[in-house]
User: Fold this.
Amino acid sequence: MGSKRRKTYIPNPKYNPVIMSKKLERLQEDLEHHKNLLLSVNKANDLHVEHLSNFVRHDMKNAIQGIDGTLYNAKKSSRIPEDIQEELDTELNLLRSSLENFSRLIPSSRNNATTLPEVLNAVDMLSRSELQKKQIVAVFDFDRQSECKINYSFQSLVQILHNLIINADTALEGMKDRKLFLRGVIDDDMCSICLYDNGAVIDPDKREVIFNYGYSTTGGSGIGLFHARSVITEMNGTIQVIDSDIPEYTKCFKIEFNPQNEDL
Assistant:
């Protein structure tokens, strides 16, 4: 009998290191493309919001002033019954107040200086309805009289904090006695904002991974925390998950940055 011929080993092309390296390079290029796309979308949204804000501040306010003038003339000529006048005054005041609140949420300039009370009051307004619907008890603790200036985008800070609250809202689903606590402290050199919740603890080995682009444990886009860290890093600040120093809460998202913006 002849000796058996040895089979020549041919590596599976799927595991060819050269091919795998090229695939990884393409994936890295795709990742950079998506990051740049995200930044472009954010810039486009900022510009759209700025135009919308200008419309609210000018066109709609001018319309309200026109209605005020018409109502004033009608009062002088007694063409409208007093009870109808009072109702119209009330509705105009509500409309004026709503537009003023809207204007605070969306400033006309993305680089306007703001204050911690302005930012956190806006976050409270945006979140209040959803938190009440989910029966989440939320406490906002900050100096409401503080006039320390923050020389960064009001809109970006509101968006980041609102997204953190949305994430916490999701993490609290199915739990009893759901609670959030937001604490903000500011002086000339440091702004510190901490968001506490009593949801599931994040493992220490996942506390950095959650900020990676596309990473999500809830089926979301995985963009919110990545965007938050990107913006805070551009502000030469930090955002991290730490253990709670308050017994009734399990974790804390902590943001720190110098409010003075030395790049200006």
Notes: The beta strands are 114-115, 137-141, 149-150, 179-186, 191-197, 238-243, 251-257. Helices lie at 17-76, 82-105, 116-133, 154-171, 224-234. The first helix runs from residue 17 to 76. The chain has five helices and seven strands.
